[in-house]
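Example (one chain per record):
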Amino acid sequence: MAILPRSPYKLGLILLAFGVSLHTLLTITHSGYAASTHPKRLLGGGSSPSSYSGNGGSSQWTESDGPAFGGNGTRGGRGEKANAAFVLLARNSDLWELASSIKQMESTFNHWAGYPYVFLNDEPFSDEFKKYTQELTDAECFYGLIEPSHWNQPDWIDEEKATAARNDMIEKKVIYGHSVPYRNMCRFNSMFFYKHPLLANFDYYWRIEPSIKFYCDLDYDPFLVMKEKNAVYGFVLSLFEYIETIPTLWDATKEFVASRPDLKETMKGNALEFVSEDGGETYNRCHFWSNFEIGDLNFWRGDAYNSYVEFLDKKGGFYYERWGDAPVHSIGAALFAKKEQIIFFEDIGYTHNPFTHCPQGASHSAGKCSCDPKSNFDNEWYSCTKRFLAL
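Predicted structure:
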C-alpha cells in the first residue's frame, strides 16, 4: 500500500505533477481530448489545434489544403467563425429522420464549431419538433414559416397543362413526376430559400436533409474555407439529371443569357465546360447533387443568379416539367461564378440514398471515416465529378 506524504504542500505538488502529466499524455494520444481542452475551446472560442499546408487555389479541398483560417493553424484561427448557418427544410413528420442527420453533424463537426440551425417549413413546427431538435445541439435553433406565395403553385400556372405534364411523367415512371409538393420544394429551393427573413443576416449556409449520413470527423471549418477562397458553392456528389424532367431548361437558359449581354464580363472564367461539352449549345445534364451543398447566400441574392431564376420561373418549367433545384443551382453556379469559386469537398464523407461519396486514401484516414472507400460514387460512370476535376 502506497504511503502518501504527510505534508499537504508536498501532496499538492505530487497531485499537480500527476495532473499535468496525465493532461499531456491525453493531449498527445487523444485528438478529441485535445480539441475539448484547448484554451480557446474552454474560453468559448470553439477552437482547437489543427495543422495545414497550402496548395494554392485548387477547386478540390481536403484538410491538408490550407492555409487555415486565422493564419495560426487552428480551427477557425483566433476563434474566428463565418457568418453561417445550417438550413433544414423539413416537415414535422421528418423529425426522427432529421434528428439522425443532426446527430451526425454534431458528432463530426458542429460539437466544436457551434453553428446555428435554421429550420424552415410550410406549416408551423410542432412543440415536439422544436423540443427534440433543440436537445440535439448546444447551438441556437431558429424555426421559420415559409410564406405561402413562396411555396404554393402560382395562380398563373395553367393547371390543365400542368396536370397533363404530371400524367405524362407518371406514364413514363419519372421519379416524383406526379408530385406537386415536390415541385413546390424545387421552386422554393431554387429561388426563395435565400430570401427567407431568418437567413437575411447570414452569408453562408450548409444544407442538411433527413436520413443522410456523415462519416468523417472534420477538424477544420468548411465555412471558413468558403470565405477564405471567395468560393460560392461547395459539393460532394455530382451526376447526370433525368432529361425527362428538364427538356426545355437549357433552351430557357440560353434565352436568358442572350437577353443579358451585360453579363458577358461576369461569365468570363466560368465553369461552362462542366455543364456543356460544345461551348454552351447543349446541356450535358451534369449537376451538383444539391441535397448536400455549402453555399454563399449573397451569390444567390446577386443580380445574375436572381434574374436568371426569375426568368426561369416565368417559363413555368417547375410545374409544366419538373425542373429541380439541383440543375438550376448547378447551371447558375457554373455560368455566373468563376470555376475556382466552386469547391469539391473531397474529405467530407456523405450519403444521400442511393449515392455515397467516401473519401479516399489519406483523407479517409485523417477523417477517421466510417464509410467503405470502395463505396464511392465518384468512380461510377454516372458521376460527373471527374469532369469537374478536369476543368
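Caption: The chain has one domain: 84-389.
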